[in-house]
Amino acid sequence: MARPKKPRHPLHGLRIVVQLAFLALFLALLVMTALGTPVAARPWLAQLFLITDPLVLVGMALAGAFTAALLAGLVVVALSLLAPRAYCGWICPLGTTMDIVDKLLFRKRDRSANVGPRLRQVKYGLLVALLVLAVFRLGVVGLFDPVCIATRSYGVALYPIADHAVKAGLVAAEESGLRSAGRAYDWAARARLFIRDTDFKKGDTHVAYLWSFVFTALLAGIVLAQAYQKRFWCRNLCPLGALLGLLGSASPLRPRVSQKCIACGACRKRCKTGAFQPKDNDKPYASVVQECVFCYACERDFCPVDAIHIGAGSPTPVRPEPQVCPGRRAFLGAAAASVILGPALLLDQRTRQKDETNPMLRPPGALQPDAEFQAACIRCGACMRACPTNALHPSGVENGIGGLWTPTFVFNIGYCDYYCNVRKEDVESGRLDRPANLCGVVCPTGAIGKLTHPQKIARKIGTAVFDKSRCLPWARGEECLTCEEQCPLGEKAISHETEEVANLDWLKMPQPKRNRYEELDTKRRGGATLTADEKAELAALPPKRRKLGLPYVLRDRCTGCGTCENVCPVDGAGGIRVERLQTRDVK
Q1: Are both 119 and 38 inside the same structural domain?
Q2: Which residues have CB under 8 Å from 523's CB, separation 6+?
Q3: Burial of 116 from C-beta contacts in 10 A (0-12 / 13-18 / 19+)
Q4: Do 127 and 270 reside in the same domain of the chain?
Q5: Domain endpoint, select from 257, 290, 311
Q6: What is the DSSP string of 216-228?
């Protein structure tokens, strides 16, 4: 006779509700960050999940980039001292994403044979490596931090994909005769829910981010790895999970296995994080508190003899089984490897900086020198998602592996908005008390500082330089002063000088007509009187030379906002581009 199914533990059901609520909050704050305005007055809304991340707190403290806002992470530290990895099971947006995918795709898949206890040691080694690298002021913590991964993946990868899909769907629905789809599209566009069209050259209706495909693939890899093992990332790779588990090693609250245990292995088979291990004598099983995410499924769902109870008691034993947590030698080995790797990354960064230039086109307000910025930046992508023109993108390894995915400008996609977080009317009336750069507003670590409008326009990003081999007036003799017209500065940083140049229309004429023009023009210049027919004939021919405005940059005024490069009508590489600042120009 089948044993009747016991009701779930109340906290098990509550956990699912709390998980989904926190994921909804995370996504809502992500959209608010994209809108910009809702978080401008309350920056903590955009920073909430990142400033409460203990791994970010510890990493920034070791890197010397600590800010008071990061003290919010102590709330999660306090929670972890009581329930070590409850954050992973109740709050973490990446963990919730994995649980949803597991329910949808792998619910009936038996993965109990894929235990791999030694794999769990990787996350501890990764934690040690990241913290040692932080001491070398290499802010690579965010490359592996789950909250940064979720923020970066959802904001820089999935948001543009969803944006394109929704736009295409609404357009198709409107074209099929559904008028409400058009109204929904207009409403979303006015509310700035859609990514802003900023590619003036091509008129695209959506803008993707550099590396977005990589971020999508990495997120897919994390969630699909559950085909091998439930919560594969959390068990084996998550450095935040390792930190929280170590913090709560002596927690009195943990799953406890009584002597009623019959060593059937059901708990080990069904626990999503493998928080149960057999003892040496195989009976009873023991819990590994560092791995428990406090889902409360084990109390009633797993054990057939009710031998498991989550409760308070003696905090011993402190350490998990040796095959789960590496020993002292392994920790020291990971630290030693990082001590070698840190200087190597710094050397790689220095050798890639050529011509004594400032390494990247950084957002206004970014810490200087660039090494300070890289130490404080956690690569979360919040500044990229908040940028109203989608001009900020993840960088590659142009200046070393240590600077991977830090924000940099890509001006052929967007530009640094002159009125980013302020209104033109406020600037004209002198109301300049609010931060003018949204990237600085949403930055959780202070890597990008908040600037008023006067401070923002005084900060140089780079300097515009004309490529005379591609600029239309310089290279082809064609009229074009778009860059000067669109320069947002009050005292424009681009001007022009008028010169006489060869007329292309005259050069395109057939040789007989050019000869006739030369004949009549020479006759006129010699003082001879032209007949009425000759005057009419000469007037009908294009002149040999004409006046043309040739643009140039006023370097002292240029802030490197990239508007000129963005609006340049030349296909491909523009006739004007913003170059990095020379080191002597960095203030």
Answers
A1: yes
A2: 530, 534
A3: middle
A4: yes
A5: 311
A6: HHHHHHHHHGGGT
Kindly give, in sequence order, each residue whose CB lies less than 8 Å from that of residue 142, ignoring residues fewer than 6 positions away: 56, 59, 148, 152, 377, 378, 379, 380, 405
Q: What is the CATH number of the domain that holds 375?
A: 3.30.70
Q: Does position 324 have pLDDT exceeding 70, yes or no?
A: no
Three-point CA angle 440, 445, 450, nearest 5°: 25
pTM, two decimals, is 0.87
Q: What is the largest CA-CA distance in the chain?
A: 122
Same structural domain for residues 239 and 378?
no
Quick one: pLDDT at residue 358?
54
Cα 152 to chain centroid, rounded = 4
Find, among 109, 215, 82, the residue nearest to 161 by Cα.
Answer: 215
Kindly give, in sequence order, each residue whose CB lies less than 8 Å from that of residue 41, ignoring residues fewer than 6 positions away.
434
pLDDT tens for 404-452 read: 999 999 998 889 999 888 888 878 787 777 888 999 999 999 999 999 9
Higher-confidence residue of 517 and 100: namely 100
Domain carrying residue 487: 463-585
Q: How far is CA 570 from CA 488, 493, 497, in A?
A: 20, 20, 21
Give the pair of three-digit tokens for residue 550.
């040739």
Task: Classify 52 as helix, strand or coil.
Answer: coil
| 487 token code pair | 């320069």
| Contact residues for 128 (Cβ-Cβ < 8 A; gap 6+) | 331, 334, 335, 338
DSSP code string of 332-355: HHHHHHHHHHHHHHHHHHHHH--T
Residue 306: left (phi > 0), alpha (psi -120 to 50), or beta? left
Provide DSSP, 102-168: HHHHSTT---TT---GGGGHHHHHHHHHHHHHHHTT---HHHH-HHHHHHHIIIIIIHHHHHHHHHH
Residue closest to 255 by CA, chosen among 211, 306, 217: 306
Of 546, 553, 543, nearest to 514 by C-alpha is: 543
Burial class (CB in 10 A: 0-12, 13-18, 19+), 327: exposed
Domain count across the chain: 3
Q: Is pLDDT at 539 greater than 80 in this prediction?
A: no
Distance of alpha carbon 373 from alpha carbon 357, whole angstroms: 15
Residue 504 has pLDDT above 80, yes or no: no
* Cα(500)–Cα(431) distance, integer angstroms: 45
